[in-house]
# Entry
Amino acid sequence: MTPFSRRRLLDIAGSVTAASVLSALRPFRVAQAAEEKSAWNVKGLYMEACNCEAMCPCVVGNAPTAGMCTVLLGYHVESGKKSDVTLDGLNVVRMIFSPGHMTKGNWRSAFYIDERANPAQREALSAIFSFKPGGAFAAQAGLVTEVLGVKFVPITFEAQGRKWKMAIAGIG
# Structure
């Protein structure tokens, strides 16, 4: 994996395009229409590390430099809620493997959720960060052929100015 690098602000309202999701190290804001029954709003920091030789070419619509893509997408929630469930300070990591160009699909994905989350927070984070309808990444559901599951693991996040670090115990 290449080191995390800063890229651009994600401002996601409801669903996102594949290109906007494949940005990197920047603040993010994910919000959903308040009129929906399961309203949620999340704001925080986003990091990405992939196996490409340089900047992620998927961001500009090009194929991965290695022909396939393995990417870790990390989210640190600074503030957020789903209904009455507060998500402040929790972390989520999505891992995606694409055997070729990301836009061609056939993704395999796994989710890692901060083990500090209580059951209600785990459910809320799963709903927001998964490919499920109403989640931030529902627009990508058609690209996914297999979801390998969700694990609740220790995820640490550290920030010192513009230097950020996220680690998933035993994963990356």
Q: What stands out?
A: Confidence is low (pLDDT under 50) at residues 1-26, 32-36. The longest strand covers residues 69-82.
